[in-house]
Amino acid sequence: DQQVKQNSPSLSVQEGRISILNCDYTNSMFDYFLWYKKYPAEGPTFLISISSIKDKNEDGRFTVFLNKSAKHLSLHIVPSQPGDSAVYFCAARYGNNRLAFGKGNQVVVIP
Amino acid sequence: DTGVSQNPRHKITKRGQNVTFRCDPISEHNRLYWYRQTLGQGPEFLTYFQNEAQLEKSRLLSDRFSAERPKGSFSTLEIQRTEQGDSAMYLCASSSQLGGLRDEKLFFGSGTQLSVL
Question: What are A44-57's pLDDT values in tens digits?
Fold first, then answer.
């Protein structure tokens, strides 16, 4: 069963505009949510995280929003840059620092 | 380079053969994880070590799979009698848990891409 869901597999956005990625989850026991970025032939790279007791975390161009009542989080990238073109995975932590991942969203930033 | 290192990067094997992958975690990290990623999917948890102890195994890890982490440093993942369904990217990750603090970030290696013919 897919505990972390990412819909809209791909997203194209103009350079300088905002990219918004969405993620839904089902397990209320998740205590941390993370976003990872992945380039082809490389492993996922940590981007930003948020604790389940917070509703927003910001790091430079990246902001993650958490709506616990809706079991929904989103990642905002502003402004989008061509180097942001990658696959983005939403992940949720449970148990002994295990992560459950979504299927990923392909982001293409058009120069 | 102080990141997570995985070898080999690519492995092509024939069905029925055994393969072994190696992972060298970030040196101060005491936790090590193996994940598997197939095309179009996110990484899926396989197993987890704290120091040299293997503390958890996913049901995805069949009897043909075995992982070790002797001396709590590098780890190996062996697949015996490979099947075509084993074709995937095998990812290793590490994290630290020092002084009771839990670091939620996992640092991943570049993975080993396995192709079973």
Answer: 999 999 999 999 99
| Cβ-Cβ contacts under 8 Å, A45 against chain B | 108
Percentage helix, strand, coil for chain A under 3-state DSSP, each rounded to 5: 5, 55, 40
One-letter amino acid of B66: S
Which residues are CB-neighbours of B99 under 8 A, at least 6 positions away? none
Window 36-95 of A, Cβ < 8 Å to B: 36, 41-46, 49, 89, 91, 93, 95
Cis check for the bond before A111: say yes or no (omega within 30 of 0): no
Q: Per DSSP, what are the bridge partners of residue A82?
A: none
Taking CB atoms and an 8 Å limit, are B56 and A97 in contact across chains?
no
pLDDT one-digit tens code per residue, B73-104: 999 999 999 999 999 999 999 988 764 445 66
Amino acid in the structure at residue B13: T
Residue A59: C-alpha distances to residues A56, A77, B1, B2, B44 (Å): 10, 10, 25, 23, 27
Residue B23 touches chain A, beta carbons under 8 Å: no
Model confidence at B60, in pLDDT bands (50, 70, 90)? confident
Residue A102, judged by CB atoms within 10 A of its CB (0-12, 13-18, 19+), counts as buried
Could you tell me if A10 and A108 are in contact, meaning their C-beta atoms sit under 8 angstroms apart? yes
